[in-house]
Structures are given as structure tokens and as C-alpha cells.
């Protein structure tokens, strides 16, 4: 089963990602904790935060569990699976022939720890490359189709 098959069908907005990041960081959180966190980081009002939480429950990204009369929100999907789906959507927009160059620019753009670099080096050393990449673009989308 692919990650997409286990994800709720509706995408989430950038604002909803802010809620999910709080919930993922704590493997769940009470509504008040989420609201306070959003107010502290983004100066959002309480009703905006409640609306975002409600939408995430409706979309299937959060489930509410009553604990002592209060709603405790648990993620129904992992942060990693959501990040992979988001990355797949991004890379689906990029010509296959440009993937390596783009990944290199991403690595150059962001600060990485020594451990991150060691881990990435090991992944690249174990990666089985292909002799030839095949462009998935339609002819009008890509210079690789020019004659």
C-alpha cells in the first residue's frame, strides 16, 4: 500500500500545517495547547485556531479524544508521510531530467548537521543509479524534447 492510499483524500492548507506541526511534535495535544501555540507563533485569534482544528478533524488528519471533558487531538497520519506526499507533489512538477540538479540545489541551500551529511552520504553511496533517465514531460513542457 502506498503512502497516498493511507492519506486522507483532502489536502491541507499552509495554516493547517501549522496546527499539525504542533500535534506531531507532541504526539497529540489538547485544544487549548494548540490554540496557545498558534497565538504565540502567529498571533491568530482563538476562533481561527478552533476552525483549523475542526477542519483537520473533518478532513481526517486529526481525531479528537475526550480526556477529562477536554478534547485531546491525535494525528491520524505521520509527519513523515505528509512530508513525503508533499515532496512527491513537488517533484511531480519537475522534469525527471532535472531532479538531481534540483536535489543538489536544495542540499546547498539548507544548513545540515554533520550527522545529516553522513546519513545522506551513506544513502547516496547505497543508491543504485540508472544509466539513462527518461523524461516524463510532454514535448511542449520541456527542452529535452527539442530537436
UniProtKB/TrEMBL annotation:
GO biological process, one term: negative regulation of DNA-templated transcription
Pfam families, per the entry: Penicillinase_R
NCBIfam families membership: CopY_TcrY
Top-level taxon of the source organism: Bacteria
Annotated InterPro entries: BlaI_family, Cu_transp_CopY/TcrY, WH-like_DNA-bd_sf, WH_DNA-bd_sf
Keyword field: DNA-binding, Transcription, Transcription regulation
Record keyword Transcription present: yes
Protein name: CopY/TcrY family copper transport repressor
Organism expressing this protein natively: Proteiniclasticum sediminis
Similarity comment: family membership: Belongs to the BlaI transcriptional regulatory family.
GO MF term list: DNA binding
